Structures are given as structure tokens and as C-alpha cells.
Amino acid sequence: MGNIILLALLGAVFYYVFKSYSKYEKYSKEAFKDFSISHDSLKRSELGLFVALCAKVAKADGHVDALEAELVSNMLDDVSSVFPEPAKTKDILKEIFNEEKNRTDNIEHLAHALSHATKRSQAMQQQFMQFFIQLAFADGEVSEGEEKILAFIAEAMQFDPQAYHAIFEQFEKMMHNVHPQNTLEDAYKLLGVRPDDEMATIKKAYRKLVREYHPDIIKSQGKSEAYIKEATAKTQEINQAYEMIKKARG
Fold first, then answer.
1. How many domains does the chain have?
2. Measured at the alpha carbon of residue 238, what is the angle toward residues 221 and 245, in degrees to the nearest 5?
3. CA quadruple 110, 127, 228, 185: dihedral positive or negative?
4. 217 and 78 in contact (C-beta within 8 Å)?
5. Is the dihedral of CA 62, 68, 70, 71 positive or negative?
6. What are the pLDDT digits (tens) for 207-219?
């Protein structure tokens, strides 16, 4: 069930976390045109701090599964696109993610730093916190370890407890509204593949659709909530179809 809803949740969150980018000049390509790309500079930036904390949340239940890794990669593509040398930027942000996912001694430091970097905007802090919470829900439920890390980050960022619980409850309700794909025939049709296609072909079609309906962080700025809901619903259908086919094939 976790894999079925993973992309749906994360597909939606990419927009909600970053939809304020258009309101902040520093997130434009023009503002970043003179940014010197290096491991240290990115790690100190608020987006680097955000990636580092994402790593803590993703690994809080003991592992980062393949689908989580793929979706984090999609998110990093979008974030990296505002920097000079996007490919180099993404590689460095991936390094930061991989370094930080195995550390637990610096969560408070990173959360304090992110809070300071975003202190100009409570809305931005709320969007980041929303991402962390949704990431924790990605596998279907929040483990004890994930809940502890989320609470620790929220406290270190001095995040409003009522706002934190409101976001948490919002995604608990979302989990109850997830419904499985109806039939295997429908699943094949949705992915645009045939029952006799090889699994590699089906996976390729699936990943292409995920990318197509993933709400690009930059290009989706200013889009309506209806757009995001539609993209989220479509992504959910794609995942349900793919998981049903995988299960049928053993």
C-alpha cells in the first residue's frame, strides 16, 4: 500500500513546498546566475539545509526505498534547475542527501540553521515542514522514528505546534481516501502498455508518466489548487496501476 500512494503524496508536495518560489527573487535563475556552485556553498544554502533534513526524515524508518529515491531525484531536478550548472548542482545535492541520511548527531543544528535562513517567511517554513511530514507519510504510515524526528525538527525550528498538528492530520485524512485500482486490464490501459509487454517496457512507460504528471517545481508556480489536485489524482492512478501489474507478475 505504501508504494501505491508514495508518488501521489510526493507529487503533490513538490508544488506545495515550493509554490512560493515565484514570490522570492532568490529562487529565480536570474538571482542565482552568479552563485558559485560548490559542495560547501550548497550545503550552507537553505535549499541544501532542506535537502539534508529531508535525508533525515527519509531514513528515519531505517531505509530509503527505490521509489523514494526516484522521487527525491525528481525533486532535485526541479530544485537544481534554478542554479547555474543544474547537473553539477544536482550531483552535489545528491551527495549532501547521501551524507546526511546516515547522520543523527546534527539534526538540531540543521533545523536551527534552516529556521534562521527562512525567518523572513513563516509561510516558507510551513511549506518546508509540510514536505517533511508528507515525506514521512510516503510509505503509508509514520513510524515512531519518523514521528520523533519530525517533532524534533519542528521544535528546533520553533514551528507552531498547532500548525504542525494541523498539517499532520491533513495527511492522515488523505491516507484514508486512497483507493486501489479496479482491474488489471484497466491498469495496463492506463499505462498505455500491453499484457504481453516485458516488465522493463512497463516500467519505462510508468516512469515516463510519473515524470509527465509530476508537478514541476518551477513551471507549476502560480498554478491553481485544482491543477495540483488533478496532477495528484493522476499520479495516484499511475501508481496504483503499476503496483497492480507488479503484484500480478509476482
1. 2
2. 160
3. positive
4. yes
5. negative
6. 888 778 765 544 4
Q: Which residues neighbour 173 within 8 Å (Cβ) at sequence distance 6 or greater?
A: none
- The full length of the chain comes to 250
What does the pLDDT read at residue 175? 64
Residues 70 and 163 in one domain: yes
- Domain span at residue 21 reads 2-176
DSSP H helical segments within the chain, as ranges?
2-18, 29-32, 39-44, 46-59, 66-80, 86-100, 107-117, 122-137, 144-156, 161-176, 184-191, 199-213, 225-248
> Same domain, yes or no, for 118 and 159?
yes
Helix orientation angle between 184-191 and 199-213, rounded to the nearest 10 degrees = 70
CA distance 250 to 248: 6
Task: Tell whether 195 and 138 lie within a shared domain.
Answer: no
CATH number at residue 221: 1.10.287.110
Per-residue confidence (pLDDT) for residue 122, from 0 to 100: 81
* Last-in-domain residue among 135, 154, 176: 176
> In angstroms, how far is the first alpha carbon of the chain from the final one?
16
| 133-178 pLDDT tens trace | 877 876 667 889 999 999 999 999 999 999 999 888 877 776 666 5
The reply to whether the predicted model has a pTM over 0.85 is no
Instruction: Looking at the structure, tell me whether residues 159 and 199 fall in a common domain.
Output: no
